[in-house]
Structures are given as C-alpha cells and as structure tokens.
Design brief:
The protein has 633 residues and is α/β, with parallel strands linked by helices. Helix content is 30%, strand content 24%.
C-alpha cells in the first residue's frame, strides 16, 4: 500500500527512515524489470489501442511478455553494435514497440527519445549531438510524415548505421487493415541514406527472449538522453542515469501506485513525464499503463471518448496536463468513472479556475506536481489526501532539497519565506556538473556546485509549500520593472470563456517591453478582445501588468506536452509591432519572418525589396531592442 504523504511531517518521516543511498533499490533497468516480472508475471503491464473507441481492438502486454520483448530487443541492439555508451534513438508515436524500445535501449546502451513533431533539421541535429548509432522509427503510414522526416534526418547524421522501422499496420482491423497498404505514402528516401534498413519486429524475433546475451550493467550509469521540450529555442540534450530513473519510479510506487492500479497516460513516450514518472513507476509498482492512440491526447476522438476509455480500463489514475484538462472540460462526463481515484497534472502550472472546474465536473481530486527534464523529472507534488493550496505545486518529495536562491554580487543568497527567487534543487535525479551533453551548457547551471538552477521563479511559503511564479527568462521587463507573466495568465484564465492564455512582453520603443496576452477560447464561447481587456483591468491588480494588447487566436501554439510555446507568440508580437511602426512612418518595408538565432535570439527579417529605405528602417527599428536583418533575396 502507498505510504502516507498527506503533510510535510509525513514527508519528513519518509525522509528520516534512511539516506537515499541506503535504500534497497535495484541498480539497473533490467534488474528492476526482472524483479517486477517475477512478482507479477501475468498481470497487465502495457495496453495500447491505435484508435480511440471504447470498444476498439487493443493489445495488452503482461509483465512477463514485456520482459521477454525487452530482452529480445536489447539483444538485437547489442548485435547491431550498440555498447553501453552507444545511442539508440527513437522517433516514434506511442505504441507498445515504443515502450519496448525505450526500456531495451537503456539495457543495451543509451536511449534517446526524440519528438516526432520536430522538423528534419532538428532531428538531425539531435542525432549528431548524441552520435546515435541506431534509429527506431515508423514505417511510412497514412496521416503522418514521421518516416519521411526521419529518412531526411538520417541523411545528415553520419554516425547512424541502422534504421529499424515499426509498422503500425498490425494494430489495425479490417477493413482499415486492407486499405492502408493501398494508400500507404511512398517513401523512396527511406533506403536512400547510408544506413541499413530493417523491420523492427522481424529483426527482433531473431534473438533470444529468455536471457540477455551480454552481461547487464553492474553499476549506475547514463542510460538516457532526453532533449528539453520546453518553450525556448533549439533543444538541449539532458543526461539521465539509472539512479535518477529509479528514484522517480520509487516515488511513484511508494506514494501512489501498486500492482492493482490502472493508469491512463495519453502523453507522448518521448517526454520525461510519461517515461520517467509513469513508466518507471509502473516498473517499480507493477501497475498497468494504458496508452491510447499513437498521438495520445492529440489522437482522433481521444477527448470525445476519454471518459468511456476510463470506464473500459477501470482507470484509477489519470495523467494529464493543463491543456488536456481544459479540453476535457468542454466534454460531458458521459461514463462510469467511479474507479478513478485522482488525476495528476504536470508540465506547466494549472490555472486556478481550471482546477476548480475539473474537480466540480469530474468529482476527482487533482494532484498538481512539478518537475523538469534536467532533474530526470520529479521535484514536488501536492500532499496526497492532505491540505491542498490551489496554485501551489505542493511540497518537495522525500530526498529532494529545494532552495529559493537569489544571485548577488557576493554569490547566491537563500531567500526568506514568501520571497521570490530562482528555484534550485538537489535530489537523486540531478546529475551534478553533467546535466547536458554539451559541456558549455553546464556552465553556471549550479549554485554551490550542488543545486541545479531550474530557471523557474518561485517561493516557499510558511507551511513549506512551493509556488511557481514564472520563468526567469520569461519575465516581462517594462522600463526596468519586472512583471511576472503568470499574474496576467492567471487573471485572464479566470474568465469563463477562456481556455488558455500566453502572456509575453512585446517590443516597445519607450519601455523596452510592454505586456501583451494571446488567448485561446473554450470551444463555442464568444467574447471580444476588448471585453477581455476590460476584464484584465479589473482582475490584474498591478497596473503595469495590464496587457496593452489582447489577441484571440483559434489555438495557441503548444509543445507536444501541452505547454504554450512562447517563442511563436513572441515572433507574432515582433511582426505585429514592427510592421505597425513601419506603416506609421510611411514605409513600405515589412517583416516577412522572425527567426530564432542561437546567439542573437529572435531576429526580425525584412523584405529585401525595401532596401532603398534602409536609412529610415534603421531609424525606426533601431528604437527597439530586438535585432533585425534583411531576408535573403
């Protein structure tokens, strides 16, 4: 049974049992999986259905079957030349093969999950950064261009010597199973690169499933590379050790799950939330994970069928993110969800109003947590069954030390109660000094050489609860005055017509930046930007934080895990403000695009047909802090 974690004192009691290093926990992924397969051989481990209907075909792997397939896949990877320091990358939607590749990749070498929504050049850059030797991806399939993008990326990743393709056709039933081969997109580039091309399942079947053909690791080591999927620029690659993954799994099994639980997890299996929080917790507890559709929450019909899926699988825990919760609140609870104990929300702060709507509509408690890729994931969570402080991300997990630090000329200083500073953490998931594969990225990443600087602003209240107040780099700086975008977002999210909000600083010639907000509405809702502007004036108490521009979009740009993708909003704002300034000055020049330059940040590119106006352009755009350049002819 899960332990008491209903208060700070209960947390301290777990912490005081023994140091983390003395806990009797398996060292390696294979050891952990083998132990769970021995305990619960015939219990369900992973279930997957390619379509979202509550009665559609599904495939379930037991723990014994999972162990066999992971053993086979790990043996296959080793036979393909993968050693402990070699990398197996996968660019896959969710499927049972994705779970097997994730686990087997960490047994054989270092696994590198990559977001399949990235562009070919980004995928190629990650493959080069990690020196991936083997790539597992999708065989060409209708309604997705993953296979085509990966084929292009591999051409620019010379270290890749083998590409293994997963064919989703086997999950379909007639008549779709008959139709797909007739309409499958051509992918002539799949074999046009330098790597060998093999079928994943056919190749895996050649290898033994009863034991590894090589010795398992005997000590802690780096076993995964995860690229950061946050809201800024090009991805960085974080290194994760067995110990950090075991810590995340131990937390899940100690505080939440046991072998009787069924976990609904429509999150992508390239992100730490699904992989390190849920899959590792399953490995540690024997719980059953359900992963509907290749695209998870983004899959056709998932939101419409969600509650019926919960009823089908007798779900006890729902794993979600704020954007998904917002979409669910636009559908009725049309099924028996009495088996659901609680929902877990992460990846970004949950607006207070959305929290209230969900608990009222579903009758299910939401546990809001906090974690980050750089720390292997988990940091804090609301006390389970204890006092909730809506808007807080709860209390630190056992064996996690959180400090709020403020940089000063004399070094970092710890902030007082409720004083805002940078959230810095130390726990078994933090890889001190070597968080990123690029050594230069690790400079100035730690305070006191121990505490990982998260880049998140926050505070700890008198009761020990952690509050996230924004991103250090997301601060809107208006004439030297710092404005936290969370204040704007929380206020506008309180409007009943608003589903999601992204607040940023738009360029301003006088103040440097002025706050502006982009809004996505609840489906079917009607409100004007002017009405939201008036609402903001009433509900935002700091006058300087009232947005100077509010714009309603059909959909806010988001990352694959539901975070508002603010670089796209900043690009939109730069284009709008610069073009308005150019038009106001009577110039014909216009911004045609905004690029993300690695050294200069966001750079406006101007239509080169207006080069005759260069002197006037320099005068008008020179009043803004953001750089500009001519677009290529």
């Amino acid at each position: 049974m899960p332990s008491d974690f209903s208060s700070l004192s209960a947390r301290h009691a777990i912490d005081a049992e023994m140091p983390w290093e003395q806990r009797d926990i398996p060292v390696t992924i294979y050891e952990r999986l083998s132990e769970t397969a021995r305990k619960f051989p015939n219990r369900p481990a992973f279930s997957y259905q390619i379509t979202s209907g509550a009665k559609d075909k599904a495939e379930t792997l037991t723990w014994q079957e999972t162990h066999k397939q992971v053993t086979q896949a790990a043996n296959m990877f080793r036979a393909l030349g993968v050693g402990e320091t070699d990398v197996i990358a996968y660019i896959l939607p969710n499927a049972n093969e994705t779970v097997v590749t994730f686990l087997a990749g960490m047994v054989a070498g270092i696994v590198n999950p990559i977001n399949p929504l990235l562009e070919p050049e980004q995928i190629a850059a990650i493959l080069r950064e990690t020196n991936a030797k083997v790539v597992v991806t999708l065989k060409s399939f209708p309604k997705t261009d993953v296979a085509q993008k990966v084929a292009e990326a591999v051409r620019h990743a010379p270290n890749v010597n083998t590409v293994l393709e997963v064919d989703l056709l086997r999950y379909l039933t007639p008549p779709k199973k008959w139709i797909v081969p007739l309409i499958r997109p051509k992918n002539p580039d799949a074999a046009a690169h330098h790597a060998d091309l093999l079928d994943f399942n056919a190749e895996m079947a050649k290898y033994p499933s009863d034991k590894l053909t090589f010795a398992d690791s005997q000590s802690d080591r780096v076993a995964a590379y995860f690229h950061t999927g946050g809201t800024t620029g090009m991805p960085k690659v974080a290194q994760h050790k067995y110990s950090g993954m075991m810590y995340n799994g131990w937390l899940g099994s100690r505080l939440l799950f046991d072998e009787t639980d069924n976990i609904m997890c429509p999150l992508p299996l390239f992100h730490v939330f699904a992989c390190h929080v849920i899959v590792m917790s399953q490995l540690a507890s024997g719980a059953h994970g359900v992963y509907p559709t290749p695209a998870g929450y983004r899959g056709d019909g998932v939101f419409d069928n969600f509650w019926k899926l919960c009823e089908r699988w007798k779900i006890s825990f729902i794993i979600s993110v704020p954007t998904a919760i917002s979409a669910l609140m636009q559908r009725p609870v049309d099924a028996d969800i009495s088996s659901v104990k609680m929902a877990f929300s992460g990846s970004s702060p949950l607006p207070v109003e959305l929290y209230k709507r969900f608990e009222a509509a579903a009758g299910v408690e939401i546990i809001e947590g906090y974690g980050l890729t750089e720390a292997t994931c988990l940091v804090s969570v609301n006390p389970i069954g204890g006092q909730k402080k809506i808007g807080s991300v709860g209390i630190p997990f056992p064996h996690t030390d959180v400090k709020i630090l403020r940089a000063t000329p004399d070094g970092p200083v710890e902030c007082g109660t409720d004083e805002v500073g940078e959230i810095c953490i130390d726990n078994p998931g933090v890889f001190e000094g070597s968080t990123y594969t690029e050594k230069d990225k690790n400079h100035d990443l730690f305070h006191h050489d121990i505490y990982l600087r998260t880049g998140d602003l926050g505070r700890i209240d008198a009761d020990g609860y952690l509050w996230i107040t924004g991103r250090a780099k997301d601060l809107i700086i208006r004439g030297g005055h710092n404005i936290d975008p969370a204040e704007i977002e929380e206020a506008l999210a309180g409007h009943e017509a608003v589903a999601m909000v992204g607040a940023i600083g738009q360029p301003d010639a006088h103040s440097g930046e002025l706050p502006c907000a982009y809004v996505e509405l609840v489906e079917g809702a009607a409100v004007t930007a002017e009405e939201l502007q008036s609402y903001a004036k009433i509900h935002i108490h700091e006058r300087a934080a009232i947005p100077k521009h509010v714009e309603i979009l059909d959909e806010l740009p988001k990352t694959a895990v539901g975070k508002v993708f603010k670089p796209d909003l900043r690009k939109r704002a730069i284009t709008r403000v610069y073009n308005a300034a150019l038009e106001s000055d009577g110039l014909s020049a216009r911004v045609v695009s905004v690029i993300d330059d690695k050294k200069r940040g966001l750079v406006a590119r101007i239509d080169p047909s207006a080069k005759s106006e260069q002197d006037a352009l320099e005068r008008v755009l020179g009043s803004f802090t953001r750089p500009w350049e001519w677009a290529e002819d």
